[in-house]
Design goal:
alpha+beta, 29% strand, globular, Immunoglobulin-like, single chain, Carboxypeptidase regulatory-like domain-containing protein, four-stranded mixed sheet
């Protein structure tokens, strides 16, 4: 794996970043939010300090990234993206820290942040994004039976294919009853899975083919009422 120092030395290209901040309760934009950007793992390395406008958006900034060819020829030897930490705060809201956000060269990344209104005591909400699936080392996919059991009661397969508004995502093994379930909007789920499984620097046709495969797989799981597992949510690239 690439060390932080090596990543900084390889940061020869630039990527673009914009952060959008909204209220977790009302979904209204949060103006005047303060965002500090630093290298992940180097909290004292403040690179940018931004604030949101009336639309809850920061200005677009350029940040250093590794060379473009690293993401066009993926390997686990060279990290193809730069990892940044965002510390977000605003009056009347609990602060949020996002660590490990990935930025690729020559593309624009959009990080959406939802702030919870604060009570008397402010508790920072911390999100740690793991390595990209093309770069990190993950256990192999759990083997599944080609023919699903149908001895359960109730309807196993839906009567027709539908595009749902929300996806119920089980954060763990299908057999892990202690893992949490998340209700995620279908379009947000597809975007987050895509940014977790492929790189935004790839050719448009390659990205389109991968997104269609992700959509097909997801709708199949909805149709058969089989489980979906979540790896992570990360910077959404549009």
């Amino acid at each position: 794996m690439t060390s932080i120092k090596a990543m900084q030395n390889n940061a020869v290209d630039k990527g673009r970043l914009q952060i959008n901040v909204t209220s977790d309760i009302t979904s209204f934009p949060v103006s005047g939010a303060s965002i500090t950007i630093s290298y992940t793992g180097v909290p004292d390395s403040t690179l940018e300090q931004l604030s949101t406008d009336a639309s809850g958006q920061t200005e677009e900034v350029e940040l250093a990234t590794p060379p473009l060819e690293y993401s066009l020829n993926p390997s686990i030897e060279e990290m193809p993206y730069a990892e940044y930490t965002f510390d977000v705060s605003a009056p009347g809201f609990e602060p949020v820290s996002i660590s490990g956000a990935e930025l690729l060269p020559e593309v624009k990344a959009i990080q959406n942040v939802r702030l919870r209104p604060s009570e008397q005591q402010q508790n920072e909400e911390v999100f740690v994004i793991p390595a990209h699936t093309l770069y990190g080392e993950y256990p192999p996919k759990i083997a599944e039976e080609e023919i699903k059991p149908i001895n359960e009661t109730g309807e196993i397969v839906l009567s027709r294919v539908v595009v749902p508004e929300y996806i119920v995502v089980h954060d763990g093994s299908p057999r892990d009853t202690t893992a949490q379930n998340y209700y995620v909007k279908y379009k947000d789920y597809i975007k987050n899975v895509a940014s977790s499984e492929i790189y935004a620097t790839w050719p448009a046709d390659t990205i389109r083919a991968n997104v269609l495969a992700i959509m097909s797989f997801t709708l199949n799981r909805v149709y058969t009422e089989w489980s979906l597992r979540i790896r992570s949510f990360r910077v959404i690239v549009r």
